[in-house]
Amino acid sequence: MLECEGETVCVIMCASVKYNIRGPALIPRMKTKHRIYYVTLFSIVLLGLIATGMFQFWPHSIESSSDWSVEKRSVRDVPVVRLPADSAVPERGDLSCRMHTCFDVYRCGFNPKNKIKVYIYSLKKYVDDAGVPVSSTISREYNELLTAISDSDYYTDDITRACLFVPSIDVLNQNSLRVKETAQALAQLSRWDRGTNHLLFNMLPGGPPDYNTALDVPRDRALLAGGGFSTWTYRQGYDVSIPVYSPLSAEVDLPEKGPGPRRFFLLSSQVALHPEYREELDALQARHGEAVLVLDKCTNLSEGVPAARKRCHKHQVFDYPQVLQEATFCVVLRGARLGQAVLSDVLRAGCVPVIIADSYVLPFSEVLDWKRASVVVPEEKMSDVYSILQSLPRRQIEEMQRQARWFWEAYFQSIKAIALATLQIINDRIYPYAAISYEEWNDPPSVKWGSVSNPLFLPLIPPQSQGFTAIVLTYDRVESLFRVITEVSKVPSLSKLLVVWNNQNKNPPEDSLWPKIRVPLKVVRTAENKLSNRFFPYDEIETEAVLAIDDDIIMLTSDELQFGYEVWREFPDRLVGYPGRLHLWDHEMSKWKYESEWTNEVSMVLTGAAFYHKYFNYLYTYKMPGDIKNWVDAHMNCEDIAMNFLVANVTGKAVIKVTPRKKFKCPECTAIDGLSLDQTHMVERSECINKFASVFGTMPLKVVEHRADPVLYKDDFPEKLKSFPNIGSL
Amino acid sequence: MQSWRRKSLWLALSASWLLILLGVLPLLRLAVPSRPRAGTLPGWPRWLDAELLQSFTQPGELPEDGPQAPRAPRGGNCNWEACFDASKCRGGDLKVFVYPAAGPISETRRRILASIEGSRYHTFSAAEACLLLLLNPDTPAGQCALMPPQWDGGRNHLVLGLHPAPCPQPFHLGQAMVAQASPTVDTFRTGFDVALPLLPEAHPLRGGAPGQLRQHSPHPGVALLALAEERGGWHTAGTNSSACPWDGSCEQDHGPKQTHPGAALPNATFCLIPGRRSDALHFLQALQAGCIPVLLSPRWELPFSEVIDWTKAAIVADERLPLQVLAALQEMPLTRVLALRQQTQFLWDAYFSTVEKVIHATLEIIQDRISGASAHPSLLWNSPPGALLALPTFSTSPSDFPFYHVQQGSRPLGKFSALIWVGAPGQPPVKLIQAVAGSQHCAQILVLWSSEKPPSPRWPKTAVPLTIIDGPRKVSDRFFPYSAINTDAILSLDAHSSLSTSEVDFAFMVWQSFPERMVGFLTWNHFWDEARDGWGYTAERANEFSVVLTSAAFYHRYYHTLFTHSLPKALRTLADEVPTCADVLMNFLVAAVTKLPPIKVPHGTRQQEASPPLAPGGPAFKQEQRPAAQDCINQMVAGFGHMPLVSSRLRLDPVLFKDPVSVLRKKYRSLEKP
């Protein structure tokens, strides 16, 4: 609609410009009365025209929108296109095509949000000169596929803005089309341009007698999403290898069966096998007896039983695909084509596919790690297949079974899944910086949930020379603040001191009043008195190590702080603090409880004084799950527990408690560890733990029984020779 | 009259305007692109007869498609199945034979040969080998390689060229695999050839420079972009530069810009590297510097792309979309930047920092192809410590290793096996066995009986199984991966070690938090000895330590496999000759893998203050032992190529350790007894 309005405005402007150009020749000679008369008349006409113009634009779209849901058509009513016998045929596929040579990436330049836009040509029926159709108009699966694309975020109906074009000409099965005429039909598509940025979907390539492994329809530069590529025909990084869809996926209900050993160790369920392979399989069965089951098609089925759903071994009849769930490994041998629909059935049954098809490019192999879900055996080693499989540890087999089922659920189970995975792969090539990671493609949901990818995974001990930045959060306790500043400035590794002034009603003391210290001191004023200001990733923080310290923590000795920093260097991905706290499961109340007693375990440290990596400030400010950040600001409590949760959740590691210190006791304050140690305080802190655990959906805190002390702490050793003699008391 | 004429003129004018507008409007309507026409759905129509459509495959067609005889590979082209005869590798083991060079060879080449010979894949017999390795000549022309005797069309051959060959290949490569630096994507045969990194001439064979990254997150002041220059240097550009790095046409108008001399490494967050093959050298520099490589439509295959997931360490972008790429870099979330930076360092250190690592990674890739399902899982290649240090012969399940518990969401087993080495006096260490067996986490006790005397028949009754393994004599047998060890944790002990149950329990609890490190009681520290111009170590009590003694230490059983199967034989022989070296060697190995110090836990000061455990008798160093022992540390530094040990200044104590509180509250109270 916006665009229409734009056009109308343009009309007005053009008109007035023209009026000005022509006007002066006529108007000056007219009397003023007349002039007003004409100008009015002209304006009315013009307004009328504009109204007409608006009318032309507006009402139609409103009408049509109401029409959309009503209008339905039949596939048989689509327009017919006659292809002259001598119309152009595209070149054969160019085997040297790569994304940066054959793909016009400029077309994707408009696309916002790193998402390619896909256009689908409207459906037509193509006939040759004699009026004979080129192919059956469209198959059920291809219709589903186009519907899936059309319903997805990739779809655009604007051909000028599209980056990828999908013809509605169905080439899923090469056997159901005429090769040359289909190519001619492709060539006359409005944006064909040698097939640039066109995507064809084909699952059954080739035809008798030589069964090429890629679609025989000449297609020039078009990308091919093909089932059954071999390494000879697959253009790495350009084509996409897709599965052959198994119609049984939709027809049969096959609930998941857990991993573990099954009745048969190895099973073959394919019916049309080359005699050589069948001999090999029979030999395997003869050698290993009950463990191997080789099925074939049934010869004496009664009327009405679909042959596709039954398999036989001698006179025993088995239901297919249910029988696949009875086997640990299932053979997927190549037939005339490399890609076999049975692969989909096998994965679905949680049976580990044993793929015996040399040079076969497995479906979505660009992103899927098939080593985790299948065993690929070279054809010449087929006779050893049993011993190869026997050598796999049981744990690995169960992992593969789980992985196989997950692959089916995510990428095989419907035409839609296949279509979207294909587009995602192409999307990732065009916007590699926004691509989906290996883990997202391959890890089943259970692993994704349980695993943690530590953001600071590299074992790295930062150089001591870098030092740390102390951040003091203060409101108005200036005297105590100055004492903290003086104490902290004695720590050798301190490199900067940052005071976060959280009081908006009062100005910080004048520059001259601040203690003189050897490192830079900066004061940051905040806009609101919020606890989360202490964890803001200020630009002034130039070191990786941050010491968060309250404005009343004066009992920590310089040795204690310096030692804390050195411990942090060895554990830069953890919270390193002084007093430790513990969470416990209260069996009576069935909820978590906060514990500050003298325990043998710790799972949290107080952030009244704690070292941590500045990256966690970024996480706290921008990536805190749920409403925790606001909740903490509103309650003015538990920001330290929230930080403990956050760090443990993202790293999967426990805190490090340093030195024997048990609480922050200081002369001025009545009690530390928040406000007081009374009952209400403990209840509030317990509530925080329960609240955070429910937001995180899990209890990320890890319990440990150790703390870090200097190597010679309390050892029988001359105190003056110790690096950290003055480690302080409780 | 005139006014009438004017009126009519105006009317005519207006009428013509009307006509023009009416004529233009429909055209305008057409020009407005692809508005939904009346009666059509935007998107693919829902057909009335969608239910009636035929399937793309007729029922029964799929299984029925005619069988066809196996086909032979096409000539000229090769893939793994077609051109490599894996059946020559007996038992699935890769055995590599290297053709001896004809005539004089250069120093680099000699050392490359030596490093292959040092690998566990090497064999001296061409008949036994399943891979014949031909080194591309690196000497000046005139000494180009001749067709080797067992060539056989290149079958099961690997032609390895670390540097571009000075002379053209004198014979057809045929079915041989080619491992070359930065091969062009057009000729590279995926899954058959191996892409190597383009190494500078002076790349070290062993040791190698560590990664340059000193901190995880980029320093706030560092430049966003560095651009590789044709002359070999880098220049950095500020964050606000637009697309100019591409064409270089904006030298004057963009912020502070620095040009670094050729050898310097770039100091920036992202390094833009053009796609030309000659720029591949920049790639390795960026990797070492921890500068995230942004490759602009590279025309060459990334090194070891078969196994390394480069999307985790580099960005391959299309050079035709400069603005989009720049915008994406500027907006990249900090989390991703952090991850990419760290991965560059890990990859540099694991596979690229030395020639030896490059060659071993190449062989490892080929071994993986032969192994099939028992190859390294992708995780092992792509997370620390890397595939060269995580052997799939140990296990293919990541959670069996000590390194991946966090990623896998798993935990090490909650039991340990005690391994007690009984040496010369040949007395059963009854007290020690009872103390260890008293731990609720002890699964079994294995006694390695290395005394000449036959094993004593009298052993204390214990709650856990006690097995005696008679026969190990060499000190390195201590670290053999005995199949009887069925727990993740090993408690390595000496007959004369003295530990209490409480100490064992606490140390094991600590180990469970750090399964990749060694957790020990007695420690040494290493230092640089200016006077002797070499490394030395001391057993004296100090504020720091870097070695824990294996006479009483917990560590993961995987380190036994690594010790036995990955260390060069020369180093293990050294450990056998000088027993104290075994401790140092084990610590070197673990530190080289983890790059972290070991962990010290408290130990009662009852006796033997950090004495060399394996030297018989004597509570302290004897002066005459020192030279040999000190020398061993320097020999190991030479063997590893660098000093891997890292010092620590902390000890992990129980939470209430020596606190003035009732002992009844303390879980590990006996730890504090004097």
From TrEMBL, chain A:
Gene that specifies this protein: EXT2
The organism of origin for this protein: Catagonus wagneri (Chacoan peccary)
Lineage of the species this protein comes from: Eukaryota, Metazoa, Chordata, Craniata, Vertebrata
Protein name as annotated: Exostosin-2
Enzyme class: transferase
Any Pfam family the entry gives: Glyco_transf_64
InterPro entries: Exostosin (IPR004263), Exostosin_GT47 (IPR040911), GT64_dom (IPR015338), Nucleotide-diphossugar_trans (IPR029044)
Pathway(s) the chain acts in: Protein modification; protein glycosylation
GO biological process: cellular response to fibroblast growth factor stimulus; chondrocyte differentiation; endochondral bone morphogenesis; fluid transport; gene expression; glycosaminoglycan biosynthetic process; heart contraction; heparan sulfate proteoglycan biosynthetic process
Keyword Kinase: no
Source organism superkingdom: Eukaryota
Automatic annotation (TrEMBL), chain B:
Membrane topology summary: Single-pass type II membrane protein
A Pfam family per the record: Exostosin_GT47
Region (Disordered): 602-626
One Gene Ontology cellular component: endoplasmic reticulum membrane
Domain Exostosin GT47: 105-331
Domain Glycosyl transferase intervals: 416-657
Annotated protein name in UniProt: Exostosin-like 1
Primary gene name: EXTL1
